[in-house]
Amino acid sequence: MFHIMSIGRVTIFVFLILVLNINALPVPLHQEKDKQLVIKILDQAHRIYSEAWKVLLSSSSSPTSSMKLLSEKINKQKKSTKLDIPEIIEFMPNEMRIKFEFFPSQFPQAFGDSLALLNRKASCEMTYLKNGQLETLNCSNFGQNLSKNIHIELHDILYNRKSGQILEVKADKYENLLKKLQCVSEDPCLQMKVPLEGKIQIIDNRKGEKKEDESKKEVISEKESDKKENEQAINRKQDPELPTPGDGEPELRNEQNEQPEGPPVLLPER
């Protein structure tokens, strides 16, 4: 009798565990509305990745991301009853969570030759709100080649639309797969922090970058100064009553030294 009761209790316990965990199981992307939702979330994640890359590297363009490639792949298969990438994406609608992980060799155009060669597993986990807006994003081991021998690796991409620190990115720069040739310390080569309010903070530990930027600014300022003095000299000849330089002139702001506010796509909708 006792033995039967013990078996019954174990059976009930196992059943409860299965019931409690069933909501956390991935759901196959068979339904059209589920595919549309996943595409929407991936597109938002791609925009964040793209804007982060542009701001972090002061670039006007960004590489194609795996989020974008996955979104396009799902979009092409919307009429299909199943996807040919089930091992990559885990869709958990009951938890409003999406997770995907893969190796760069599966999407070499999104990672470049260096990361495809290293082939460390990349992953992303996203949560979303009921209206389909991305809530959090946590990605690791993303990046792209800048040239044949130099690549950028984004180790951490952390986004939280409800946090005071809305976005944080940590990245390293490598030459011939070696970080020490491009970075001055063991800290990340590049760090970016985007607060909900205030200015973007970028910490740059790349070798030679700051010195090069400062020299460029000095050259620009010298050229602008020479041009301004020449114009003022010409004006004084034409009108001797003009004030000399420095008398009542407004202080000039150096727009290059001011970091912009956070990119609009990174800020939550209010």
Estimate the mean pLDDT confidence: 75
Main sheet record: 8 strands, antiparallel
Number of helices: 5
Q: Please tell me the total number of domains.
A: 1
Our measurement of the CA-to-CA distance between the termini, rounded to an integer number of angstroms, reads 62 Å
Radius of gyration: 26 Å
> What's the β-strand tally?
8
Spatial strand sequence of the major β-sheet: 1-2-3-4-5-6-7-8
Please render the helix and strand layout as text.
Blueprint (H helix, E strand, L loop, with lengths): L1 H20 L10 H25 L9 H11 L12 E4 L4 E6 L5 H11 L3 E7 L5 E12 L4 E11 L4 E11 L14 E6 L5 E4 L4 H30 L32
Briefly characterize the structure.
This protein is α+β, with helices and mostly antiparallel strands and 270 residues long. 36% of the residues lie in helices and 23% in strands.
What does this structure look like?
With 270 residues, this protein is of the alpha+beta class. The model is unreliable at 13-24, 211-228 and 233-265 (pLDDT under 50). It starts with a helix and ends in a 32-residue tail after the last helix. It has five helices and eight strands. It has helices at 2-21, 32-56, 66-76, 108-118, 209-238; strands at 89-92, 97-102, 122-128, 134-145, 150-160, 165-175, 190-195, 201-204. It has one domain (21-207, 261-266).
Characteristic terms for this protein:
single chain; 270 residues; alpha+beta; 8-stranded antiparallel beta sheet; 8 strands; 36% helix; globular
